[in-house]
Amino acid sequence: MLRVYKAAVQQTLDILFLPEGREFLTSTDAVSRDSADRTVIAWDFQSAAKISNQIFHERYTCPSLTLHPKESMFVAQTNGNYMALFSAQRPYRINKKKRYEGHKVEGFAVGCEFSPDGTLLVTGSSDGKVFFYNYHTARIIRTLSAHKEACVSAIFHPVLPSLLATCDWAGEIKIWQ
Q1: Are strands 73-78 and 82-87 parallel, antiparallel or unpaired?
Q2: Nearest C-alpha neighbor of 133 from the set 144, 122, 124, 125
Q3: Which residues of 150-171 are buried (b: 16+ CB within 10 A; e: fewer)?
Q4: Alpha-carbon gap, residue 132 to 114, rounded angstroms
Q5: What is the pTM of this model?
Q6: How many angstroms separate the CA atoms of 73 and 153, rounded?
Q7: In angstroms, what is the C-alpha Rg of the chain?
Q8: 3-class SS at 129?
């Protein structure tokens, strides 16, 4: 073990290294008797110091974070049934004009991912569907009825980008072309 990073007594839902590896983000969910803190925290890798915990302040947790493969942007999947777009550079501002909406999360830890060329954003949905969004317009360009249970992950093959793997809450895995 090299370092330990501790924000507070809370649950960490996802971790995302930013380009160059000097910083990383965590998505957290902390609930106490008096408050709930659901946020994205930026950390300095070398010093273990918190850079910012003011990145995302809505009432929803973010079970999944994903980095755009070509641009300095990242997306946070929210339990509010939308994905939010952020700058991957300080001060990590949210793009308030662009939201990826239409899929359902409904408490599941649904993942999201960019296509290798960065033109598509794909996510599962609690209704078993897979949603494909145009990254630039945030519009749904295709849906796929993939599973009977909640589709919790959809991921592109790293070498064969026309292949997509999906899995559902019940453990079923499918490969699509």
Answers
A1: antiparallel
A2: 122
A3: bbbbbbbeeeeeeebebbbbee
A4: 10
A5: 0.90
A6: 20
A7: 16
A8: strand
Beta pairing partners, 112: 123
**Residue 92 and residue 166: Cα distance in Å, rounded?**
30
Q: What is the pLDDT along the chain (177 residues), one digit of tens a residue?
A: 677 777 665 788 899 999 989 999 998 876 655 555 668 889 999 988 888 877 887 778 889 999 999 999 999 999 999 999 999 999 899 999 999 999 999 989 999 999 999 999 999 999 999 999 999 999 999 999 999 999 999 999 989 989 999 999 999 999 999
For residue 55, what are the contacts with CB-CB under 8 A and spacing of at least 6?
Answer: 25, 39, 40, 41, 42, 86, 92, 94
Backbone angles phi, psi at 19, to 5 degrees: -50, 145
DSSP state of 171: S
Half-sphere exposure of 26 (CA within 13 A, CB side): 22
Question: Do residues 119 and 71 make contact, with C-beta atoms less than 8 angstroms apart?
Answer: no
Token look-up 């239409």 returns: 102
Contact of 152 with 109, CB cutoff 8 Å: yes
DSSP string of 33-55, one letter each residue: SS-EEEEEEEEETTT--EEES-S
Instruction: Note the residue count of the chain.
Output: 177
